[in-house]
């Protein structure tokens, strides 16, 4: 049985939203394996879907831009958090070295910073999974949805 074009369009729109989560899962898997790099893999899958399907359906074009804007915003926010963390780490280590701080003070600072960063990352991932799921369901049903707290790069 042949699928209707609207059904295909809704599935592609939903995949455009959900594919960003696959990018995050792949990134977490790489970090878990011990590869300490941060690549914006959450942008790549929605970009591929949007790029190849945007000319077929205007709904995919609109929702693909929304998904990409949100993922680029999250990537930007993550870079800001990483930059602030590196600044805090360098400042705390330089203060500990210049004041002849003990290794326990440095270790405590790193442990506190690590726990704060892990809680921020966990909060971001949980929030993103809820928002992306909500957006995918709304887009599949043909309803307009705009992500919160995003920077509109693509218009």
Describe the structure.
α1 (5-32) runs antiparallel to α4 (103-140). The protein is an all-alpha fold and 155 residues long. The mean pLDDT is 81. It has four helices and no strands. The chain is elongated and about 65 Å long.
Secondary-structure map:
Elements: H1 5-32, H2 44-53, H3 58-98, H4 103-140
Helix pairs in contact: 1-2, 1-3, 1-4, 2-3, 3-4
The helical percent reads over 70%
**β-sheet strand percentage:** under 5%
What structural class do helix, strand and pairing data support?
A: mainly alpha
DSSP strand count = 0
What is the average per-residue confidence, as pLDDT, rounded to a whole number? 81
Biggest sheet statistics: none
Q: What is the molecular shape?
A: elongated
What is the terminal-to-terminal distance? Answer: 37 Å
The low-confidence parts are: none
Radius of gyration: 20 Å
N to C succession of SSEs: HHHH
Total DSSP helices: 4
């Amino acid at each position: 049985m042949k699928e209707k074009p609207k059904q295909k369009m809704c599935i592609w729109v939903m995949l455009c939203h959900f594919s960003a989560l696959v990018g995050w899962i792949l990134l977490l898997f790489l970090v878990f394996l011990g590869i300490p790099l941060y690549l914006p893999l959450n942008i790549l899958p929605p970009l591929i879907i949007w790029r190849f399907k945007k000319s077929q359906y205007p709904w995919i074009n609109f929702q693909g831009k929304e998904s990409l804007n949100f993922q680029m915003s999250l990537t930007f926010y993550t870079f800001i958090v990483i930059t602030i963390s590196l600044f805090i780490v360098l400042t705390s280590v330089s203060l500990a070295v210049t004041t002849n701080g003990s290794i326990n003070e440095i270790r405590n600072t790193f442990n506190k910073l690590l726990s704060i960063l892990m809680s921020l990352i966990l909060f971001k991932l949980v929030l993103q999974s809820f928002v992306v799921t909500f957006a995918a369901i709304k887009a599949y049903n043909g309803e307009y949805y705009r992500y919160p707290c995003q920077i509109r790069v693509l218009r």
